[in-house]
């Protein structure tokens, strides 16, 4: 299967547009849909590259983009719920909306609230890819075998990446880390890593001096020497904590860039960086 590095947002054949146009919320979901749909599907991206979905505010251009779509792929769990208003504003209330968290074993982020960062688990991603294939087939029955085969082939790529990281984990000198926010909980679960603490308990939250002092003590108790930071969040508190504990700051990009950076390459880069840090 040809792995898409670039997905054309509008492709014309014989003067007519592709039969199916769908929209997805974040860059990783856009790419997963594109990997399965390939040239039978046009993918419209609703949350732009570089934006933080936790704080992003839709614009009129987002409504215009949503108006192009025959169906929508969202994370769900409240993560991209604001896009439901965009879908209604675009006059697409009757269009199918596929929530890709629906068949996953979820973790709790806050009491009574599931952690929405489902795509950062390669094991979850394999289920998501298969669900995307079924969803696209429901919209385009003639393409069912095409979508299922693409999903099978891409799932193999994700399985290989998963197996590689499993072997890397066995070489780690430490399996503990502190995170900017709770985006790596599924990843930690999959590989037996320990997310010791989360710095940003809510979007824009900054730990108090007292909380930072408690984190210093906790990191020493747990032997955590790695702080994972993300380009979408402030690193101010993380830098202070790193200076106090002599820990390393490790960049992990949960969102990447669509269509420039395919999901499997984004995850490979992130996992290589994390593995190097945890090997010590």
From TrEMBL:
| Entry keyword Signal | yes
* Signal peptide (from-to): 1-19
One example of the protein's molecular function in GO is: metal ion binding
Q: Which UniProt keywords apply?
A: Signal, Transport
Query: Pfam families given for it?
Result: ZnuA
The GO annotation for biological process reads: cell adhesion; metal ion transport
Q: Which family does it belong to?
A: Belongs to the bacterial solute-binding protein 9 family.
Protein name as it appears in the record: Zinc ABC transporter substrate-binding protein
Q: What organism is this sequence from? A: Candidatus Caldatribacterium californiense
